[in-house]
Amino acid sequence: MLALSVLASAALFGVACGGGDAETTPTSPPSATATPAPDPTPTVEPSPTAIAADATVEQMVGQLIMGAFSGTTVEGAATLVRDYHVGNVTLLAANADTPEQVLAMTEGLQAMAVEANRIGMLISADQEGGRVIRLGPPFTQMPAAAVLGCIGETEFARQAGLVTGTEMAAAGVNMNLAPDADVLTNPANTVIGDRAFGATADVVTPMVLATIEGLHQAGIVTTIKHFAGHGMTSDDSHDERIIVDTAVAELEAQHLAPFRAAASASDVLMTSNIDYTAIDPAGVPASLSRPVMDFIRNDIGFDGVIITDALEMQAVSDRWGAGEAAVMAIEAGADIALYSGESGAIETAVALAEAVRSGRLSEERIAESYDRVMRLKGRTLGHEAPPLSVVGSDEHAAFVNLLSEAAVQRGC
Fold first, then answer.
1. Range 40-409 classified under CATH 2.120.10.30
2. What is the pLDDT of residue 120?
3. Are 1 and 59 in contact (CB under 8 A)?
């Protein structure tokens, strides 16, 4: 067992998170379009305590994993959570049917997690808007980030985050793998494309910050991605290894400003699976790179939770197996290893536990990430959820119509 310093009692974390008319020229969007969300401030502040002495290595390292599962019921995640103590999940489109079903599933996941791990879960989804969504209709569908960037009103971005976050919270999804902080400097880049708010940091940065603000107002954990920028690439790290040899000075000038500006605002930062040889000459994907992790902590100044991009992407999996990649990521300084499938998460759970027992991963390294995850859960779990009736509400539909009118008027 590990004698690690962690945060708060299981009781604190055991509750599942929930959680006007358009003007002719809508340059000043109304401030009350979205359904108000509950106060995101927890009623109980976490304080350091010692974890129960009988906590297992598996329960500890499970908090450093986010996996996915099949089906639309909680039993689809039983192997991950009960057998391998995986502490966090990401929802895919195939997991989501109706709002009622998603809520029942997320409530079941939280109860299962508390039973298996004595602590609730981060339950995430990629709900960027546009073509990257996991919660389909009747959840309100936001336009792509590029549309918001084209409109150019940060208040629209904030309200889009608030509407999206409020509906996520109502369905028990407490973490958004968004916003995308990439700067689209290569217009031929299709993997990012309209997922980026724009082609310059001056456009992207305020939109990222406004989206984070809106999501936070709904009590949702935010994730800026994909460090150190995916907007300059021509290829897709889902499919192949990508090497970016851009100098650090050019990365600073074109790509890093949104991450730097959001470092103190976002809860989570996602690394890409791109090799940035100017930061790590060894040619290791950012998600597995100690120099990149050090750059994030020491240069960017980010002290939140670092999550990898999905490690089954071929940019990683063509070179390393699932378990080894995850051990490398945690060894490098990542806090959560992400797999968008069940088998990778299971291999990761086994490999991390073995790495701890063998001494490859020190107790101090595990404690550092575990404490960050616990601190985040202390701020996130236990909020009162808004009613499920906010999902797809007339008020939210009216806001999307307002966005559409603004986009047309600006030629977006």
1. no
2. 96
3. no
Average pLDDT over the chain reads: 88
Which residue carries 């994909």 as its tokens? 226
Burial of residue 346, with CB atoms counted within 10 A of its CB: 0-12 exposed, 13-18 middle, 19 or more buried: buried
CA angle 268, 143, 228 (to 5 degrees): 35
CA distance 187 to 258: 18
Residues 268/379, Cβ–Cβ less than 8 Å: no
358 in the Ramachandran plot: left (φ > 0), alpha (ψ -120 to 50) or beta? alpha
- Which H or E run includes 286? none
Average pLDDT over residues 317-327: 96
pLDDT value at residue 239: 64
Q: How crowded is residue 104: how many other Cβ atoms within 10 Å of its Cβ?
A: 16
365: left (phi over 0), alpha (psi -120 to 50) or beta: alpha
Half-sphere exposure of 32 (CA within 13 A, CB side): 2
Pairing of strands 48-50, 5-7: antiparallel
Q: Does the pLDDT at position 213 exceed 50?
A: yes
The amino acid sitting at 8 is: A
Q: In angstroms, what CA-CA distances link 314 with 26, 211, 338?
A: 44, 30, 14
Q: Which residues have CB under 8 Å from 21's CB, separation 6+?
A: none
Confidence of residue 241 (pLDDT cuts 50, 70, 90): confident
What confidence score (pLDDT) does residue 55 get?
Answer: 74
Q: Which residue has the higher pLDDT, 237 or 326?
A: 326
DSSP designation for 56:
-
pTM over 0.70: yes
The sign of the dihedral angle between the CA atoms of 368, 331, 125, 213 is positive
Domain ranges in the chain? 40-409
Exposure class string for 252-288: b at 16+ Cβ within 10 A, else e: eebbbbbbbbbbeebbbbbbbbbbbeebbeeebbbbb
CB atoms within 10 A of CB 398: 15
pLDDT tens-digit map of 266-310: 999 999 999 999 999 999 999 999 999 999 999 999 999 999 999
CB contact set of 114 (below 8 Å; sequence gap of 6+): 10, 13, 14, 120
Residue 195 has pLDDT above 70, yes or no: yes
